[in-house]
Amino acid sequence: MKSASTVSPARPNYPRWMSRSTPQRVNVCHVSMHLKTGGLERLLVEFARRHDPDRYRLTFIALQDPGGPAEEIRELGCRVHAVDLAKTGKTGAIRMLKKLLAEERVSVVHTHNTYAQFYGALSAKLAGCPVVVNTQHGRGCGNSLKARLQFFLANRLTDRTAGVSEDAAALCRRQDPFSARKTIALWNGIDLSRFSFHGPSPSPTLISVARLSPEKDFPTLLRAAALARPRVDGLKLLIVGDGAERPMLERLAADLQLRETVEFLGERSDVPELLQRAGLYVSSSRTEGISLTLLEAMAVGLPVLTTRVGGNPEIVEHGVTGRLVPPQSPQALAAEIVGMCRERDLWPGMGHLGRQRVETHFDINRMVSDYERLYQELLDGKQPAE
Fold it and tell me: Between helices 292-300 and 347-361, what is the axis angle to 10°?
């Protein structure tokens, strides 16, 4: 896969308003809609934790009220600003963003997803910031006409758009063919030090970690568990996470007579330890960019059973590190649950190969370094010839 990591390291660069003869750190500002719990926000915390402090100074701006991750970022020594879009309105938000970017003397504005890209790219150009980078963390820019229009307009002001998977990048190119040449794929990563290799439990205990939201399609997983339970002795399913759909899912589990099979554990801070209790990781998502929870499960050494959507086939090698099934098919998912539980002797080998794959391709330090090299390449391209 071609990613920003293939870019040759560039010579040190300084913002336009700084003297080249005086070494200075490059100011980078990450702009997102919010800083609440989620995969995107976890990655922003990792940017704060793992950036090269000798070369970069990071600032973070949320367009909605920040949450817990914002405090983590502050504790790591980075500034965090909140722009309340609901109170300021669109024009006020752009005006405030422009002011903050100028005050922070930002050279690189790194936006995350479509709405943040729209406001961040426009404000960056008004503030005179030389480089704008955007990361699309899901599949493409969004489904609505408004999102596609904002993506198209913001891309005119964006130097590089990175999809978190080859699938996401390809979809971005289809949604805005005029920006295809400046759209790349750059895989996300995880902190491998948090997820030590353990290997699968020999018991038929399944685990799934995600927000309890529609795109994760937990009803399909519950129906698959109900179909598989009579054919797998001792089947258990642990669901880790919370969200608006939890009451509905608990009712569905009761209706399917899964009270003794399924355990809803809610939001947890001990996910690495919970993964070690399981034998098989299962996901029924209808859409994915690059799933961090799949990577975390593979890092622990679990085989993975997931849907063939988005970036999942780029993570899971079918038949090698796990299995892939069609989305929204309880029957297909149940058949693979039964099949994999009957072949538990294959689980340790799949787990070892999964850990190797994550170490090779999905390490968080590699991801941060790839973006820093991308920043440098783009900044160098803005410098006048000497």
Answer: 120
Per-residue confidence (pLDDT) for residue 385, from 0 to 100: 53
Do residues 26 and 11 make contact, with C-beta atoms less than 8 angstroms apart?
Answer: no
What is the spatial distance between Cα 179 and Cα 280, in angstroms, rounded to a whole number?
Answer: 40
Q: How far apart are CA 46 and CA 56, in angstroms?
A: 14
Mean pLDDT confidence for 221-235: 97
Q: What does the pLDDT look like over 270-322, one tens digit per residue?
A: 999 999 999 999 999 999 989 999 999 999 999 999 999 999 999 999 999 99
d(CA 130, CA 211): 36
> Does residue 278 sit in helix, strand or coil?
coil
Q: Is the pLDDT of residue 2 over 60?
A: no
Specify the higher pLDDT residue, 90 or 284: 284
Query: What is the mean predicted confidence (pLDDT) over 140-156?
Result: 88
**Could you write out the DSSP letters of every residue in 221-237?**
HHHHHHHHGGGSTT-EE
* pLDDT for the residue 169: 95
Cβ atoms of 36 and 67 within 8 Å: the answer is: yes
Alpha helices, DSSP H only, in 262-363?
271-276, 292-300, 312-315, 330-341, 347-361
A 10 A CB-CB count for 373 gives: 18
Residue recorded with tokens 């988005």? 310
The letter for the amino acid at 193 is: S
Question: How would you class 289 by CB atoms within 10 Å of its CB: exposed for 0-12, middle for 13-18, buried for 19 or more?
Answer: buried
Output the six-digit token pair for 132: 């704008």
User: To 5 degrees, how large is the angle CA 23–CA 26–CA 29?
Assistant: 160
- With a pLDDT cut of 90, the percent of the chain lying above it is 81
Is the separation of the CB atoms in 167 and 314 below 8 Å? yes
Beta carbons of 44 and 78 less than 8 angstroms apart:
no
CA distance 211 to 249: 12
Give the model's pLDDT for residue 206. Answer: 98
113: left (phi over 0), alpha (psi -120 to 50) or beta: left
C-alpha span between 285 and 294 (Å, rounded): 11
